[in-house]
Give the backbone structure.
Amino acid sequence: QQQVKQSPQSLIVQKGGISIINCAYENTAFDYFPWYQQFPGKGPALLIAIRPDVSEKKEGRFTISFNKSAKQFSLHIMDSQPGDSATYFCAASWGGAQKLVFGQGTRLTINP
Amino acid sequence: NAGVMQNPRHLVRRRGQEARLRCSPMKGHSHVYWYRQLPEEGLKFMVYLQKENIIDESGMPKERFSAEFPKEGPSILRIQQVVRGDSAAYFCASSRTGGPYGGYTFGSGTRLTVV
């Protein structure tokens, strides 16, 4: 199935806390898993991406954890800041494909 | 270096009119993708084009929608005889090489409202 299921739909975290957003997929042919960040009125911007040959990738405060056997991946935002308040989308693609399949999005709010 | 430029940013059309959305890719990018975002939903792939060619239009509705990327000028997404269900944000992305692996760059989108 060409679907990616994302949860939660919305998330409120206190400043300094850890924000965790989860995604699950069915298609084992997926081999590229990016996360996008979107601010109101703007287009999505690539945040971080992972391939299935590694279980974790970290860039600054952002970490992707990948569980190939469970067909799940998640985004962790450490030390969450009010500036991180945005909508986050997970996505997936597969070899040879020119397109991304997006999750439904998570609206993240970081309270000061 | 300007990013992906989309215009107009907002477009209001009455039912039955035509909507034309334009996208100028980043300099040096020859691959263009159109996605549609309905309210409170993720982006859905519509079409992938290279200069003068439609490569994949598997996400395009069969009727009323068309896209082009001419040799000169921006890519155009055209919606004929718009209906209320066409109201959405339409995003264009571009890449230097085909596919998202190198990272798409998205424009800021065109918000289409059909009244």
Q: What stands out?
A: The longest strand of chain B covers residues 43-50. The mean pLDDT of chain B is 93.
